[in-house]
Structures are given as structure tokens and as C-alpha cells.
Design a protein that fits this description.
By secondary structure, the protein is of the alpha/beta class. Helices cover about 35% and strands about 20% of the residues. It has 2 domains: about 180 residues, Rossmann fold (3-Layer(aba) Sandwich), CATH 3.40.50.300; about 70 residues, no CATH class. The chain is built from 8 helices and 9 strands. The strands form 2 sheets. Strands 5-6-7-3-8-9 form a 6-stranded mixed beta sheet, sandwiched between helices. Strands 2-1-4 form a 3-stranded antiparallel beta sheet.
Length: about 280
């Protein structure tokens, strides 16, 4: 059964004020590897967009270019609704959660979450309430004085998410943050991220190679072709506002996973997206 629909075809850039817009972005590394070619994608305010594709298709490269952690070989990254600094990047509008929590082992949980505010020159006393509010939001207020070595893998990732969100960015970039966690912890953190997304109003771009994770979290999935990476299909989703264990076993979720899986298989095998 062909579950793909017309809306799954790569879309032309839409009109309106976007959070970020990639235009014809290509990336060639110094060793000659072509990671991305002609990557074009708009992300609007409040969206939860997953970048899905096979390993090595350039998902993380695209995310790092958006974050300003690498420059495109050609093409542009535009920030229509942000104030741009001297480096051509949005001023304080982007938070990043890496594959590993990347916490400072000599700092407490509070100290790790406070770090981006410290780098802005804000005193610990002035922002203590904001840091503690964020720790409460991720369920770690009671662990403010604990050190990373005392935390589980899931708790460390919550600290990383809190650190990325404490400055109230417009855009949160997440690079396969739960890939190394067990399935139970991963599902719990998926639920936590959805809660944080709804409460904060932040726009999210989430890199994953899991069909099931992308189908559960997103209101839009961008499926990428194998290297060189570019958009193969752009899938708008209409999930229920409240997603929980009952949704994971629902017919709607099963059909969504089947639809996304078919698009991914088309991308892997070089088949055209169906209309």
C-alpha cells in the first residue's frame, strides 16, 4: 500500500517570516567528501521538525551549519526574524543539544546550566531564579548541587537540555541526543521534550535516524537522501496535541510510521517520492 501523498514532495520555500531558511546549501569537506548538495529548507516559528535519514547523509552537518559551527561551501543561511551579529549569526537565538551531554565534570548541575548566562556576563545571583526554574522544568531542582558523575545518562541529558533552553532561544537544535540511551529512558525523554516544546514555544530541529522517534515527536519530518544529503521528502504531520503511551499503540501512529518509513526507504534506494 502506498501511503505517500502529494504533500511529501520537497516543497518550494514558503512565504512568510521564518525562523531560519537554508538556500541551496552545499558542503564539501577538505578531503573531498561531499556531505550536502543544494539543501533548501525553511523552518517556521513553533515547528518541531525532525531531520531523518540514513547514517552519513549529512543530517548533523546541516544542523552544525545552521548553528554556525561550520560554514557552507555554497548557499546561504538566512535568519529573517533575528538580530544578526558580526559573525552573521543570530544574537543569542540558538540553543544546541549534542549527541553527548558535554557537561563540565567539575561543575555542579546548577553551574552547568548557569554557564551560558555566565558567558553573557550575568551574575549567578541575578539569574539564580531562572536557572532553578529551568531545573524544576526538567525535574532536576533537587539535584542542583549534584555533580555529573552522580547522575544517570538520562539525567545528564536533561541537564544539557536545560542548559540549552535557559537563555530562552528561538531555535533549539538537537543532534540525536537520545541515541545512546535505553528505550525506556528514551521514551521518557521524548515525552519531556514534547512538554518543554509546548511550554516554551521554542522552534525545534531534531536530528534522528529513528522512524519511530521522528513520527512521535514531530509535526513535520524532512527526509534526507543518502550522501550527498539533500531534501528527499517534506512530510507535514497532524499528531494529537497530547501524545503518550496510548498514542504509541494507536492506529494513527502506526500509519504515520508506515508513511515515514516508506519515504525513508525511497530516499535510501534513490526512488522518487510518490505523489
Amino acid at each position: 500500500m502506498n501511503l505517500a501523498v502529494e504533500a511529501e514532495r520537497p516543497k518550494a520555500p514558503s512565504q512568510g517570516r521564518k525562523v531560519v531558511a537554508m538556500r541551496g546549501v552545499s558542503k564539501v569537506f577538505s578531503n573531498g567528501t561531499v556531505a550536502l548538495t543544494d539543501m533548501t529548507m525553511d523552518v517556521g516559528p513553533g515547528e518541531f521538525v525532525s531531520l531523518l535519514g540514513p547514517s552519513g547523509c549529512g543530517k548533523s552537518t546541516a544542523l552544525r551549519i545552521v548553528a554556525g559551527l561550520g560554514a557552507p561551501s555554497s548557499g546561504t543561511i538566512d535568519w529573517p526574524s533575528s538580530k544578526i551579529n558580526s559573525r552573521g549569526l543570530p544574537e543569542g537565538d540558538v540553543g544546541f543539544v549534542f549527541q553527548e551531554p558535554t557537561l563540565m565534570p567539575w561543575q555542579t548541575v546548577f553551574g552547568n546550566v548557569y554557564l551560558p548566562m555566565k558567558l553573557r556576563g550575568q551574575s549567578k545571583q541575578a539569574v539564580r531564579g531562572e536557572v532553578m526554574d529551568m531545573l524544576s522544568l526538567v525535574g532536576l531542582a533537587d539535584f542542583a548541587e549534584a555533580y555529573p558523575r552522580e547522575l544517570s545518562g538520562g539525567m545528564k541529558m536533561r541537564v544539557s537540555i536545560a542548559r540549552a533552553l535557559v537563555t530562552k532561544p528561538k531555535l533549539l537544535l538537537m543532534d540525536e541526543p537520545f541515541a545512546a540511551l535505553d528505550e525506556i529512558t528514551r521514551q521518557k525523554l521524548n515525552d519531556d521534550v514534547l512538554m518543554l516544546w509546548k511550554q516554551s514555544g521554542v522552534t525545534v530541529i531534531f536530528v534522528t535516524h529513528s522512524v519511530f522517534e521522528s513520527a512521535y515527536l514531530s509535526n513535520r519530518i524532512v527526509v534526507m537522501k543518502a550522501r550527498p544529503g539533500r531534501v528527499h521528502a517534506d512530510l507535514p504531520l497532524d499528531p494529537p496535541e497530547h501524545r503518550d503511551e496510548s498514542y504509541r499503540v494507536s492506529e494513527q501512529y502506526r500509519l504515520t510510521c508506515a508513511r515515514v518509513s516508506e519515504a525513508l526507504q525511497d530516499a535510501i534506494h534513490g526512488r522518487a517520492s510518490h505523489g
